[in-house]
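WP5 quarterly update. Target: SAM-dependent methyltransferase. Source organism: Pseudomonas asuensis. Length: 410 aa.
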Amino acid sequence: MIGMSKLEPVSFLQGAALEERFNALNSFLIQHQPLWRPKPFIQLTLPWEQTYQALSAWLRARSLDEAEAAHNSPHTLQAPLPFSGWAEESRQLCAIGELPRQHSEAPNAWSVDVPGRKWEQVEAFTQHALFRHPPSHWLDWCSGKGHLGRRLSLSGTAFDCLEYDPSLVDAGRCISKRLGLSAHHYEQDVMDESVLNRLETSHTPVALHACGDLHVRLMQVASAARCSALAIAPCCYNRISGEQYRPLSTDAKGSTLLLSKEDLGLPLCETVTAGARVRRQRDISMARRLGFDLLQREIREIDEYLPTPPLPTSWLQRTFRDYCLELATLKKLPPVPEQDWKALEAAGWMRLATVRNLELVRGLFRRPLELWLLLDRALYLQEQGYQVKLGRFCDYDLTPRNLMLLAEKP
Ligand SMILES: C[S@@+](CC[C@H](N)C(=O)[O-])C[C@H]1O[C@@H](n2cnc3c(N)ncnc32)[C@H](O)[C@@H]1O
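Structure tokens (predicted):
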């Protein structure tokens, strides 16, 4: 356990604290792999349930609504031991403070083209992207329409945008022109070699929610181009080209914690920003899949999960019977005998409640894994000669991907 009392103000991480926290999280994640690796969606019972029977029974007795209510804050669940011990350790290991902030405001005209939540994220990112030496030229990496670059350049600093979707590049150009800004919006695949021609030592690259490989690429090319500073708020850690996570820092390379692409999805399992309709649809889809799973185990006479492909939402309009029969055909299963479809559908919903409640244990490891991944990035940047700060740039409710890395050459 790292030395942190509840009374100490929580700070952002920098210097030796980065490695110290990485090592603590690394041990925690390795020790508790049996709790976060097995997926209740895939296994009818989890190996840990045998060891912690009271906890298992308590979770299994809860409703779907109860699971939903605790989903985003599993730490607060009053579950039987040893849940609270794991929760407390996870909470302490993930305590991280806000980065230094400088309040500033953009004129209303700058936000008219930006969805409300996105604008708030851009504002928050801008107010925390503070360096000892004020940047002379921002480079918005995977910029979309370039809202971040524009906002950062409010005080007159030059900015360029790199984005590979031509429609976003065009839209970004139009907005910049309307606001009288002489920015370059380049149509550029950042994974292509040619991106090196877009990057200069004098640039300060920034990336708000550039996915997996895209922000890793930025760290690599920005260090190679000797950029003196950069700021990144990563997201979608599982959007990588390989099947296995490739650690970046020496510490992570030396760890026995090996992560698959699927493992990298764990930190992204929140539902903070999903609306009620989307959540309802997701529930129906999952309950049906779980009902079908019970059926396929019986028909195949193999008590094992059978992966099924993503299905169009129109499949949810079908009766549950038609859904199962067509999915069985799609998976080339033996003929399906008539069933009590109502009972099977109800069993799917019951399993969904069980899955969601058992998932609360995995939920305790979402943020630790995310922080581990961020610290791997922080340590990598340190190795490249940067002084690094890692902290929050906005509230979790605005976006669960609310952590930011600031790197600056000493
Ligand atoms: C999650 S969005 C973030 C956009 C912007 N930073 C923002 O916060 O609004 C990721 C962006 O990366 C762009 N993108 C994806 N792959 C890319 C690539 N290989 N090269 C350049 N841009 C890419 C997408 O088109 C998208 O606009």
